């Protein structure tokens, strides 16, 4: 397990001074990068592999403010045929602020085709921790919106150079920023989300455009992004009321 300590800065915060959703995901990413450093990162690089996120679940108890010190604890806690699962706990003082769980693929660095868990380098498997962090474990699943709608168009976002990561596609955190902005365009209030679930379905490359559409279901909002040919590239659920994503 790795603990990553940082201070929420203004660049990670919203206008009201609270940590933003993309800011929180950046802290999670920094903690994961620290946890993967050393033999694991060396083995992944030596085998010409890369990590690719596929699904994410987040529940927020409270949002820390700018200037506040926080600790993000993380570890990879499970694996199945294709997926590795990483748990996150964001805390400050007593009790957690947020819990997260993310599913990752280990993929070929050139083709981005998944590598089965059984063929992962030994050092990657040796870094596994069998128990989840904290007393609760979040469920991670692939989102499917069959039979739902109609969705309302909420805007088009273009993948510019600032959104592209080392894998040559839009970084997963950028989608959270786009989706939250799309939902807020349709919401009457500007309160912060308490629950997020996302599934990344297809890579988006530099210059491609993503059309986002949303659907309100009470305090829960569904969002999906589509490429120019109509294929979905991302789906998400944002909730602004109580949720029960625990298993």
CATH third-tier fold name of the largest domain:
Thiol Ester Dehydrase, Chain A
The strand order across the widest sheet is 1-3-4-5-2-7-10-9-8-6
- Name of the CATH architecture of the largest domain: Roll
What is the CATH superfamily classification of the largest domain?
A: Hotdog Thioesterase
Task: Quote the beta fraction.
Answer: 35-45%
GO molecular function: thiolester hydrolase activity
Pfam families: Acyl-ACP_TE (PF01643), Acyl-ACP_TE_C (PF20791)
Domain Acyl-ACP thioesterase N-terminal hotdog: 11-119
GO biological process, one term: fatty acid biosynthetic process
What keyword list fits this structure?
alpha+beta, Thiol Ester Dehydrase, Chain A, 247 residues, 4 helices, disordered C terminus, globular
What this model shows, in words?
By secondary structure, the chain is an alpha+beta fold. 17% of the residues lie in helices and 36% in strands. It folds into two domains: 2-128, Hotdog Thioesterase (Thiol Ester Dehydrase, Chain A), CATH 3.10.129; 152-239, Thiol Ester Dehydrase, Chain A (Roll), CATH 3.10.129. It is built from four helices and ten strands. A ten-stranded antiparallel β-sheet has the order 1-3-4-5-2-7-10-9-8-6. Residues 243-247 have low confidence and may be disordered. It comes from Peptococcus niger.
């Amino acid at each position: 397990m790795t603990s990553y300590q940082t201070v929420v800065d203004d660049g990670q915060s919203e206008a009201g001074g609270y940590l933003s959703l993309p800011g929180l995901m950046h802290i999670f990413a920094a903690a994961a990068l620290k946890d993967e450093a050393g033999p694991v990162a060396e083995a992944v690089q030596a085998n010409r592999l890369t990590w690719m996120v596929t699904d994410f679940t987040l529940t927020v108890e409270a949002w820390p403010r700018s200037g506040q010190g926080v600790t993000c604890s993380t570890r990879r806690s499970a694996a199945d045929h294709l997926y590795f699962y990483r748990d996150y706990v964001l805390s400050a003082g007593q009790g957690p602020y947020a819990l997260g769980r993310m599913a990752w693929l280990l993929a070929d660095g050139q083709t981005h085709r998944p590598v089965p868990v059984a063929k992962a380098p030994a050092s990657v498997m040796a870094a596994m921790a069998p128990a989840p962090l904290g007393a609760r474990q979040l469920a991670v699943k692939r989102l499917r919106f069959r039979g739902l709608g109609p969705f309302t168009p909420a805007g088009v976002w273009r993948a510019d150079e600032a959104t592209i990561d080392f894998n040559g596609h839009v970084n997963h955190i950028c989608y959270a920023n786009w989706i939250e902005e799309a939902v807020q365009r349709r919401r009457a209030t500007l309160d912060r989300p308490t629950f997020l679930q996302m599934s990344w379905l297809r890579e988006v490359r530099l210059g491609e455009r993503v059309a986002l559409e949303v659907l309100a279901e009470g305090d829960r909002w569904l969002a999906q992004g589509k490429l120019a040919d109509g294929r979905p590239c991302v789906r998400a659920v944002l909730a602004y009321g109580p949720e029960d994503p625990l298993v």
